[in-house]
Amino acid sequence: MMMEKKPKGTRKGFTTGACSAAAARAAVLGLIEGEVPTQVQCTIPKGDVVTFAVSDGAIVNGVAHAVVIKDAGDDPDCTDKAPLTADVRLLAGQHDQVIIKGGPGVGKITQRGLGLEVGGPAINPIPRKNIEQNVRAVAATLLQQQGIEVTISVPGGEEMAKKTLNDRLGIIGGISILGTTGIVHPYSTAAFRASVIQGIEVAANQGQDTVVLTTGGRTEKFVMAECPQLAPACFVQMGDFLKYALDTVVSTGIQHVIIGGMVGKLTKMAQGETITHAGRNAVDTELLAELAARIGAPAQVCAEIRQAETARYASERMEELGLMTQFYQALGEKVIETLKGRYPDQFTLRVLICDFEGNKLSDIREATV
To answer: At 1, is the pLDDT very low, low, confident or very high (cuts 50, 70, 90)?
Structure first.
């Protein structure tokens, strides 16, 4: 009987935390049995028992070494194929102690606001607990007499971290050991959404009163140039997660919000979309036609905008008519009007608009009474 192949983009993977726990468990088994196994069963935070392949098993001078290569499934993650490495040794006279440290390639915490000890490793609480649980599950007898020290490292982790937001969050020198369930979901919107929320919480915990929410790398680069006075922690790439970002702004008490975007995403915000992904709902070209009419565009052009598929078409027509400045002003005002309707008197709003090359088109501030 043929196995049905999973559609591309649906295969789940495992987090850096789950892989670290598996490597730690394998290394402890190595100390107990005299040889590191080539595979190990590990309980992940979600509660499932998963079998992981183990490589580079060795015991040298009383230190057991094990590596689990991260498989991120179909998630396009910069830590996919990362070698999550555990080195484990016994601690004489420290019975029942399990000490978890960070080695090379695991980031170090340098700022408050992440709920982790400044100066300590970027191993989040749930993965830390999961590592300890797996160690204790196989080492109960050993721990009656001695302690166990587990050092998690990630060769190449410093280079991987350059593709993450760690530097901005005050995590230097490597990646974070993460994962609340142990499972990586394909194209992990949950992970990205969590990073948006965390970024805003970090800004608030640092005492910042402003966050700058952008839809991607180009818009972020643009607004950073426009707002050089703001600390790096103020800038959060929210992607399509406008609702989660603004809900977190409210819950953390941030007072000022700057949104940086291009015409397509901003049109979705203006029309009331709270998740602005391109695949969810079409851009409301009716709204763009109304804005064009409001600033004096001819009826024929408005009709053509109404029939078009993209917001970019409206921009191009406005540019031809010399109405670009007025059009973007009207669009920004509509974004502010829509969002203030959703979040009345919660924060001030400013909208910065750039083109596809990152050039400034407009800067719209909330009207003050």
So the answer is: very low
The position carrying tokens 């749930």 is 126
Q: Are residues 129 and 35 in the same domain?
A: yes
Q: Indicate whether 201 and 157 sit together in one domain.
A: no
> 299-307 vs 311-320: helix axis angle to the nearest 10?
160
For range 47-58, the mean pLDDT: 96
Residues with Cβ < 8 Å from 76, sequence gap 6 or more?
Answer: 187
pLDDT averaged over every residue in the chain = 88
What span, in angstroms and rounded, lies between the C-alpha atoms of 32 and 54?
16
Strand partners, 358: none
Residue 5 lies in a domain: no
φ/ψ of 238, rounded to 5, equals -95, -10
- Per-residue pLDDT reduced to its tens digit, 67-114: 999 998 776 678 989 999 999 999 999 999 999 999 999 999 987 667
**Does 260 reside within a domain?**
yes
In eight-state DSSP terms, residue 123 is B
User: At which residue do the structure tokens 């509509």 appear?
Assistant: 334
Which tokens belong to 146?
């001695």
At 245-283, the pLDDT tens digits run 999 999 999 999 999 998 888 988 998 876 555 444 566
Sign of CA dihedral 33, 39, 41, 43: positive
Decide if 66 contacts 116 (C-beta within 8 A).
no
What is the per-residue pLDDT across 281-321, written as a single tens digit (0 to 9) for each? 566 788 999 999 999 999 999 999 888 767 778 888 898 89
Same-domain check for residues 110 and 158: yes
Among 141, 166, 181, the domain-final residue is: 181
Q: How far apart are CA 111 and CA 202, in angstroms?
A: 9
- Please indicate, yes or no, whether residues 111 and 226 belong to a single structural domain of this protein: no
297 and 152, same structural domain?
Answer: no
- Strand-strand pairing, 108-109 and 171-172: antiparallel
How many distinct structural domains can be found in the chain?
2
Helices 324-342 and 285-294, axial angle in degrees (round to 10)? 120
**Which residues form the domain of 263?**
188-365
